[in-house]
């Protein structure tokens, strides 16, 4: 594999389509923090308690998934030189479908409605529509991706992993909604849904995108050829084993090892970064550490070396909040100003004075917001020590950091609108 091709900024989609997926994420995640602080907490923080399941789907389905889909709509044209042929209205539907499906699942798990089965039935229906729209938007385009590096490899095959995740989730929602389906093993579907979602979808997509964006923004060494050949393909190959019930435990162990190796290499590369004062740098360090530690705990749990249920909470927080949301936070702070700067250059006259990215979003505030996010991560990890008090503190603290992030991003968009009119 060669180094990345020249970026095709001229093919970038209209900014409102991408911003509609990305910008609401912090404010929606703030809602998850408030829900953590004040929602009924029976059985919490057990893995299968209603609050835990609701929070996981809130953060991953309502918050992270629209961001990832928005990033794909930006990266496919710019990095892979592939234009999405789907109409604009269809692409705009992706984020609302994520929110509707998430709201239905959250209502079902949280017991917010007496008609729990109806909530899961609605989740199955809306999830099915989301699956169909995802196929329509991305599958025609990804066939044209020319694989030249780790990022383009990810962009070409990553929608397939997402479809497996959505399909397994739709089937489980249909079972919980008591729809007319053949007898299905919920345990098997759960392992496929969680394993593919966390590794073949989230870890692979983060590794693929980061292999281009992190060296570009934080000036780290580019991935070696062996890294580009092994990841994220190794995540997908090990995920295939999840489809066989007899090999699911072995597959989860292999996936944990693959994540540990990939995250460890990434951490070593980050330690060589030249722009260490950038606000997102600290978040990327903790993200890699979260993936490593979370995968180690998962490996130990499946080997029965750890038996306390609190370890499951720690692994989930380390991977989903530390490993997923922290890098998403870092990329939002960097990519939103970058996209605004890019589109201003394209839309304004050649001699127009465009403020640099550091002016569009204050670096000092972004750095303090990142540090506050790390503190909230530590509070979330400590919840099992004193569940009643710490979940309120962690939830409100997390909500505050996300409102702060949302305010920073809205400030950037406000400047974008003002500068377009000048």
TrEMBL record:
Q: Which UniProt keywords apply?
A: Membrane, Transmembrane, Transmembrane helix
* Annotated protein name in UniProt: Permease
Has UniProt tagged this entry with the keyword Transmembrane? yes
Per the UniProt record, which residue ranges are transmembrane?
17-38, 58-82, 94-113, 119-142, 154-176, 188-214, 226-244, 250-270, 282-301, 313-344, 368-386, 392-414
Q: Which organism is it from?
A: Undibacterium squillarum
